[in-house]
UniProtKB/TrEMBL annotation:
InterPro entries: LepB_GAP_C, LepB_GAP_N, LepB_N
Listed Basic and acidic residues bias regions: 1099-1114
Pfam family membership, one: LepB_N
Chain intervals with Low complexity compositional bias: 1118-1128
Lineage, broadest ranks: Bacteria, Pseudomonadati, Pseudomonadota, Gammaproteobacteria, Legionellales
UniProt name for this protein: Effector protein B, substrate of the Dot/Icm secretion system
Positions of the LepB GAP domain: 392-560, 573-650
Domain LepB N-terminal: 124-261
Coiled coil location: none
Native source species: Legionella quinlivanii
Region: Disordered, residue numbers: 260-285, 1099-1128
Annotated TM spans: 1058-1077
Keywords: Membrane, Transmembrane, Transmembrane helix
Length: 1128
């Protein structure tokens, strides 16, 4: 980005053409306005062009140049570049360079061709008159001459299209003022102001190549108009004003413009900054050298003492320059069109002064060998009118005359070519082809018929004379290279177009050739010793030919003035001899036609690309080779053998170029290029220029390939400084463009770059995963981090080892924490020893600092499992009563140590265990069960009683039953072995039987009734318990009890009285269902002793019996006995 007058400028394109390659085109980023920037290598030129521009701007500011003409002065201001150096800047203007208008450029249109202007300049510049409604040319040229800028050639002059008051006009202007003030102080530079000091001198080549003002001398009145402009300016420009203008311009130049150091940097380590007055006062060595050069180049001594930015030194220079400029302005007031030389006079015989509506261009033929006979042909002819038979015709140089005639032919051919005076409407065929009855593709006398032959070429071929020397003509003879196959077509055209430009030229040339022929005859007559002396009769044909020539020449000149010219692109045709060939037309040509083209092209000063197209095509060249071996071509007199040999060398060169093009490696291309260079040296001069183009193209391609390598290296550097996918893709794209051998040499670099990017990507992925892990710290993120770390190569792993190790340790801790949490959750879901062991391992694996987090939960789990271990064992069926009792105490302690949640969970079970403990202890104490008895034998009995909801009441008999069960082994065993569901009435009866037994046994204190007494009671008790716990109907149970009593209590036995007791009990129970009960009612006995019927035990048993005896078997839910009692 550049900054100029507070504008921001960005570059949009490079400069083309000219000699200053630095700079280019820039655009204002805000307004879109465009500017052109250039930076001359020569600082002296930088200053002179800048000074010229600033002076012209002052002229405009002060009204000395009106606004309309101001835009003709496209001059420069100064701008500072980013590196601190200075360059010239000027607004970009839409214009057309003059060389593109008057056809003085190279064929490719890249720039002007100085050779054209040096040889034929005025002829081309005269075509400016072809455009009407123009202005600005005289003003621009006058100011350029005033500033001593003689570089007014077609590459610096431009034409702009304007719309003024609705009318389209064309304004001339100048774009480059870098040649201003050269030799400005030399007196000759002002005295010969049109030529300038640089172009003065008879043997000065620059007089031909640099006297650019002379190119405008055939534009009528131009120099006189410039003189008038100078007078007008001089009248308004007193000396003091001129000094002030120049002084102002000098002071606008940056003070450090010529310094070698960059602005803002000291000249040496000890010197002050650039802004220091002392620094500005002392020019550095580079500045002094430039000022010395300026003083020498301009011949203005004040430049030696100039210090930019210093008022005194700039005024001194302004005064000296103003004096010179004022003198030039005075001199310019007398400007006139330069006087004609004898050559100019001769040339003007062909012309009349053109008016503004028609432009007649002038063509300057190449100058023949020096001789006294250098006058143009018409001038010579007029001179011969005065000759008599007494004059010495032998002194005439016929060769010079022929050359002048050829120049005369060439001139008219060129005029016809430049402005299409032939009237040709076809795109690439001449005017004679329609009159050829049939196109003859075979050659005749060395030429085949080609419709693309240009008319100017045919005119030269039909009329040019060449000096031919061979064995038959050792002194030489003039011949023509007429194209025989065209003679018929030309004859038919002439018959139908008698007033055409071709016919006018043909008539004049025919008579001119007659003059030359007659001169030759006259010379022979005078030189022959046997011939008679010349007389007037001998001169008659000569004089007649002169008269006819002058007549036809005059007619040609007069007609030429009346012909309407047409602008053509003749100067842009590739070939000097042919209209353009399309590719299909070229391929359709016969062998002879192609050979004709090749031999014709070899006549050119420099061959065209048409020859290259043919020779480059193997198929076409084979045709040419076949044709050139024919007699019809080998007998030509224009050295066909030599041309064929040159063509073969050119073909070899082209083939080498092809090999260069297809070579795959850079080395192969270099080798082919060297061969091309060697082959180029062997080519004739006219072939070398076309070959040089191909060689330059090869060089450009080699340079391009080399540049590709440089681009690759630069891309590699860019990649190494910024390793990314985009820079790698750019590197790959440059790699793919490399030649195979260079590509191979760069393969390792590319692979390393790819690996570097891969490692960078892996490293980037690792760092991103590390960042994510640090943000989220999950196992999943660590696994991803681990994957990326393992993909790193050793150097990167070492580089990131610390961060990975930290992350790994952190993850390990997190994994252990998560594992502990998981194991805790699993344990809480399923309280198993395996889960506790897993939890214990997970807890112990925790780092010390994280154990407190889980210690409470772990302790709870441990305590619970300690409890549960005993709990599970104590609840097992295989445990014995003793083991149960041994475990109960620690179990109860462990229960107490558990947390309330777990206590709540096991509270009911805990209470049951407490209950069981009590029951077990009673059972063992009462020897109902032994200590070794498995609880699985006890628990079903306990469950049958204590878990039976029917027996859970608080009735006295139920409470007694539960108590007696735990202390009475016979009752325990009876209940244990019974499958009958226990009901409250059964429990009550069992208690009654228990009490009946215990009370009777108690009376046998100290065995006063004997052992059998107690034994019978025991047996009866066991039997009745079993009976009551059976599933027999109640009546049957009562009957069974009676039988048991009868069996156990014998009449003579001390227990016989129990029968009566039992009878009383049963009678009370069953309501007299037994037979004996009836007898009791009649006062008789049944099986009880009458003596004991009314004993106390009988009364007791009677009271036990249920008095509601009328019970059905279905009503067995009632007790057999009354509720238990107490008594003696």
């Amino acid at each position: 980005m550049l900054h100029f007058n507070q504008l921001n400028l960005e570059k949009t394109g490079d400069k083309t053409g000219g000699k200053n390659k630095v700079g280019g085109f820039y655009r204002n980023t805000e307004t879109g306005e465009e500017y052109f920037i250039k930076q001359p290598d020569d600082k002296a030129e930088l200053l002179t062009e800048l000074l010229a521009g600033l002076i012209l701007q002052e002229f405009v500011k002060r009204g000395l140049v009106d606004k309309l003409h101001a835009s003709s002065l496209i001059c420069a201001d100064v701008v500072q570049m980013p590196d601190g150096s200075y360059a010239l800047i000027q607004p970009k203007v839409d214009f057309e360079l003059l060389y593109k208008i008057i056809n003085t450029g190279y064929r490719d249109g890249s720039d002007r061709d100085p050779r054209i202007e040096a040889t034929n300049g005025p002829a081309y510049y005269m075509s400016l008159l072809n455009t009407s409604n123009t202005f600005g040319l005289s003003t621009t040229l006058m100011l350029s001459m005033l500033l001593g800028d003689y570089s007014v050639h077609s590459g610096n002059m431009v034409r702009m299209t304007k719309n003024i008051d609705g009318q389209v006009c064309y304004q001339y202007g100048k774009i480059d003022w870098g040649a201003a003030f050269r030799n400005y102080g030399k007196k000759e530079n002002t005295d010969l102001i049109i030529y300038g000091y640089e172009s003065i001198g008879a043997f000065n080549l620059k007089g031909i190549t640099k006297a650019y003002f002379l190119n405008y001398r055939y534009i009528p009145g131009l120099f006189e108009t410039m003189a008038e402009r100078a007078r007008q300016l001089n009248a308004r420009l007193p000396q003091e004003l001129l000094i002030d203008i120049i002084h102002t311009a000098l002071n606008e130049i940056p003070a450090d413009l010529l310094k070698t150091k960059k602005p803002g940097q000291p000249v040496s380590n000890d010197s002050p900054d650039i802004d220091s007055p002392l620094q500005q006062e002392l020019p550095d060595s580079g500045e002094q050298k430039t000022l010395a050069t300026l003083a020498k180049d301009t011949s203005i001594s004040s430049f030696n003492a100039l210090r930019l930015g210093d008022e005194e030194s700039t005024r001194e220079l302004a005064q000296e320059m103003a004096a010179i400029m004022g003198g030039r302005l005075n001199k310019m007031e007398t400007l006139k069109t330069p006087e004609d030389t004898y050559k100019d006079k001769a040339r003007k015989l062909f012309l009349t002064a053109p008016d503004n509506s028609m432009h007649t261009s002038i063509y300057f033929p190449q100058r023949p060998d020096p001789s006294v006979w250098e006058e143009p042909f018409p001038i010579l002819v007029k001179e011969f009118i005065k000759w008599t038979y007494k004059d010495e015709f032998g002194q005439i140089n016929i060769s010079a005359i022929v050359n002048q005639l050829n120049s005369y032919i060439d001139f008219w051919a060129q005029q016809g070519e430049l402005f299409n005076l032939w009237g040709n409407q076809e795109s690439n065929q001449n005017i004679f082809t329609p009159y050829a009855p049939e196109i003859e593709t075979e050659a005749l006398r060395g030429h085949a018929y080609l419709p693309q032959y240009r008319e100017a070429t045919l005119l030269r071929r039909m009329a040019y004379s060449y000096l031919h020397i061979d064995e038959a003509h050792p002194l030489g003879v003039f011949i023509t290279h007429r194209i025989a196959l065209y003679e018929g077509a030309i004859e038919r055209y002439v018959q139908t177009h008698p007033d055409s430009y071709w016919v006018l030229c043909q008539n004049a040339i025919t008579e001119a050739q007659a003059i030359v022929n007659n001169l030759h005859v006259l010379q022979k007559i005078q030189s022959s010793p046997d011939a008679p002396s010349l007389n007037e009769e001998h001169l008659k044909e000569f004089k007649d030919a002169i008269s006819k020539f002058l007549h036809h020449n005059k007619k040609l000149e007069e007609s030429f003035q009346q012909l309407v010219p047409q602008k053509t692109d003749s100067e842009r045709y590739s070939s000097e001899f042919f209209y353009p060939f399309k590719e299909d037309e070229l391929k359709a040509l016969s062998d002879d036609q192609l050979a004709t083209i090749c031999l014709e092209e070899l006549n050119a000063r420099k061959v065209s690309s048409l020859l290259t197209r043919i020779v480059s095509n193997d198929e076409l060249y084979l045709k040419v080779q076949a044709a050139l071996s024919k007699d019809v071509f080998t007998k030509r007199v224009d050295s066909p053998a030599g041309k064929t040999a040159e063509l073969a060398k050119f073909y070899l060169f082209i083939n080498t170029y092809k090999q260069f093009s297809v070579a795959e490696t850079y080395i192969q291309k270099q080798e082919e290029r060297l061969r091309m260079a060697e082959q180029l040296k062997k080519l004739d001069t006219n072939l070398q220029e076309e070959a040089v183009l191909l060689l330059q193209e090869a060089d450009d391609r080699l340079l391009a390939l080399h540049q590709l390598e440089i681009d690759f290296e630069q891309a590699l550097e860019a990649f190494q400084s910024n390793i990314s996918l985009s820079t790698l893709e750019l590197l790959k794209s440059h790699y793919e463009m490399l030649p195979s051998d260079v590509k191979k040499s760069k393969e390792q670099s590319l692979e390393m770059a790819e690996k570097s990017l891969e490692q960078l990507q892996l490293e980037t992925a690792y760092l991103l995963s590390l960042e994510k892990y640090e943000q989220n710290s999950t196992t999943e993120h660590f696994e991803l981090l681990k994957t990326h770390y393992e993909k790193l190569k050793d150097p990167q792993q070492i580089k990131h080892q610390s961060s990975y190790q930290n992350a790994s340790e952190k993850n390990e801790t997190q994994v252990r924490i998560a594992d502990c949490q998981s194991k805790l959750s699993e344990f809480e879901k399923d309280n198993t020893m395996a889960n506790l062991n897993a939890l214990e391992l997970a807890f112990k694996a925790l780092p010390a600092e994280h154990k407190p987090q889980f210690e409470a939960d772990y302790t709870k789990a441990l305590r619970f499992m300690n409890f549960k271990k005993l709990y599970d064992e104590i609840r097992g069926d295989e445990v014995s009563v003793q083991r149960f009792l041994n475990l109960s105490e620690p179990l109860l302690k462990r229960y107490a140590s558990m947390d309330n949640t777990k206590k709540g969970t096991y509270q009911k079970e805990y209470e049951k265990l407490l209950e069981k403990e009590k029951q077990y202890r009673i059972l063992v104490a009462e020897k109902v069960v032994s200590e070794t008895t498995p609880v699985k034998e006890i628990n079903p009995v306990l469950k049958k009683v204590f878990s039976n909801p029917d027996l859970a009441g608080d009735q006295v008999e139920l409470q007694l039953f539960r108590q007696e069960l735990l202390s009475d082994q016979r009752l325990w065993n009876a209940v244990k072995s019974s499958s009958t569901p226990l009901k409250p009435e059964i429990a009550a009866d069992l208690v009654s039987l228990k009490q009946f037994h215990d009370e009777r046994v108690l009376k046998n204190h100290k065995n006063k009734y004997g052992e059998e007494y107690t034994a019978s009671l025991d047996r009866f008790y066991e039997q009745t318990l079993k009976t009551r716990l059976s599933d027999q109907p109640i009546k049957e149970q009562a009957e069974a009890m009676k039988k048991a009593a009868k069996k156990e209590f014998q009449p003579r036995h001390s227990t016989r009285r129990f029968i009566a007791d039992l009878a009383m009990v049963l009678t009370t129970l069953f309501g007299g269902v037994f037979v004996g009960l009836g007898r009791k009612a009649a006062g008789k006995t049944y099986f009880f002793s009458s003596a004991e019927v009314k004993t106390t035990r009988e009364q007791d048993f009677d009271s036990m019996l249920n008095k509601e005896q009328k019970k059905t078997e279905e009503e067995s839910s009632e007790t057999l006995f009354k509720k238990p009692f107490s008594g003696g």
